[in-house]
Amino acid sequence: METRNTPTITVQSLINAPTKKVWEFWTEPQHITQWTFASDDWHAPYAENDLRIDGKFKTTMAARDGSVSFDFEGIYTDVQTYKLIEYVLGDGRKVSISFESEDNVTKVTETFDPEMENSIELQQSGWQAILDNFKKYTEAAV
């Protein structure tokens, strides 16, 4: 799939948790399945993650009513523990996630290449909704 000739899209959130916890919840499959969906009528029934350069990840996102599902997957190109994750999706789009910490608050910033099927606004709102779900899940967990 070709990408648009447009700038990247960025979403971000301040998570009220130390970076070690944020990193763990972002990267471990048992946590990934708890937050990787944009709305309550979706869920993530499966996740696998080989967090290393050239490692692969896959998360299945599915409608709770069983009507549709898809795999979100890619290959890591850079992993700097507690700081940065970069990967390439199956369609060639690049994604970068940075983690910045100050006083037990971690800023997570995701920057990604847009795809051509959906509007920039829809993509940004969808990825932001997933990031907001991550924030809610991470902050609620003890």
From TrEMBL:
InterPro entries: ASHA1/2-like_C, START-like_dom_sf. Pfam families: AHSA1. It comes from the Bacteria. Residues 16-138 form the Activator of Hsp90 ATPase homologue 1/2-like C-terminal domain. Belongs to the AHA1 family. This is Uncharacterized conserved protein YndB, AHSA1/START domain.
